[in-house]
Every structure is written in C-alpha cells, then in structure tokens.
C-alpha cells in the first residue's frame, strides 16, 4: 500500500539518501536551475516542505517525492508544488493531492499551484483545475566576460556632502 505524507524537517536528513536520487532526475530537466544541495538547504530552513510517498509493503521504500513552497504574492498566498519525481503516480496522486490541499488550507493559503510538465494537466483536469499559464523559457549561451574600463573616482566627503 502506498502512503503519502509531509516530512518534518528534522527527519529530512535521515531519509535524504533515499530522496536525493529521485530529485537528481529533475536537475537536468531544470537546466541546472538548482542542485540537490539547494533543495536540501531550503528544506532544512523550512523554506520548502518535503512530501514523500512510500510503499508499506516494500519495507517503506520511497517511490516518489515532491516539494512545496508558499509563494507570497502581494495579495494572496499560494502553496506551490514543485520538484516532483517518482514512479507509480496513478496509485498515489489522489492521496498526495488531498494531503497537499488540506495542508494549504490549514496554513491559510488562498490556493494551490503546481510547476511541472504539461503531462500533469490530465491529472489536474480531473480535479477541476484549469490550465491558465504556460511557462516557456530560453537559456542564453554564456558569453565570456568582457573587460570594462573603470575609472576610480576619488571624492572627499565634507560635512556629509560630496565635494
């Protein structure tokens, strides 16, 4: 049986060796926007929350993970699900969806968002979600840094004013 739950941040360290391989699969897809150590840092300082799905019949093996983070817009707060990876999604999607939704309500969020691949849309449409935005990106090729001619300006300050 699969069970999903948020992981208290003091338990992130002990299970990190099982979570990190799942997260590592996302790094290439993110175009190196983050490394696993960045996510671990955010989890340990409570900026993000870790959710896992484990199989109670397979020695509590972790089969999926995702992170959430509260995004504070000027007028609303949303719990944003991101960094999701794993297997057997059809078996755990409904359970983790309910858990995350209830958590968002319990911390007074105005809603839930997800950052993910377009393949997620069919799962969320079944829950009465609608596709509102598409995030598209283009990564720039890195250029060699050019030297600039900087001049050092020496000004004296007299009575709190530049002279």
Strand order of the largest sheet: 1-2-3-4-5
SSE order, one letter for each helix or strand: EHHEEEHEHEE
Major beta-sheet overview: 5 strands, mixed
Number of strands: 7
Low-confidence stretches: none
Polypeptide structure, described:
The protein is globular and about 65 Å long. The protein contains four helices and seven strands, in the order βααβββαβαββ. The chain has helices spanning 12-29, 36-44, 89-106, 121-125; strands at 2-7, 48-55, 61-72, 77-86, 111-114, 157-158, 161-162. Helix 1 packs across helix 2 (36-44). It is α+β, with helices and mostly antiparallel strands and 163 residues long.
Care to give the gist of this entry?
Helices cover about 30% and strands about 25% of the residues.
Can you give keywords for this protein?
single chain; 163 residues; alpha+beta; five-stranded mixed sheet; two-stranded antiparallel sheet; 4 helices; 7 strands; globular
What layout of secondary structure does this protein have?
Blueprint: E1 2-7, H1 12-29, H2 36-44, E2 48-55, E3 61-72, E4 77-86, H3 89-106, E5 111-114, H4 121-125, E6 157-158, E7 161-162
Parallel strand pairs: 4-5
Antiparallel strand pairs: 1-2, 2-3, 3-4, 6-7
């Amino acid at each position: 049986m699969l069970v999903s739950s948020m992981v208290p941040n003091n338990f992130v360290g002990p299970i990190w060796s099982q979570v990190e391989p799942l997260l590592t699969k996302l790094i290439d897809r993110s175009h190196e926007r983050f490394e696993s150590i960045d996510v671990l840092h955010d989890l340990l300082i409570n900026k993000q929350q870790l959710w896992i799905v484990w199989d109670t019949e397979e020695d509590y093996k972790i089969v999926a993970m995702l992170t959430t983070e509260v995004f504070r817009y000027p007028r609303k707060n949303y719990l944003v699900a991101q960094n999701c990876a794993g297997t057997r999604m059809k078996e755990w999607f409904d359970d983790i969806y309910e858990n995350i939704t209830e958590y968002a309500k319990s911390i007074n969020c105005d809603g839930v968002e997800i950052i993910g691949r377009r393949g997620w849309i069919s799962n969320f449409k079944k829950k009465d979600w609608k596709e509102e935005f598409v995030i598209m990106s283009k990564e720039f090729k890195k250029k060699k840094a050019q030297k600039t001619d900087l001049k050092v300006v020496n000004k004296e300050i007299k009575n709190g004013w530049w002279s």
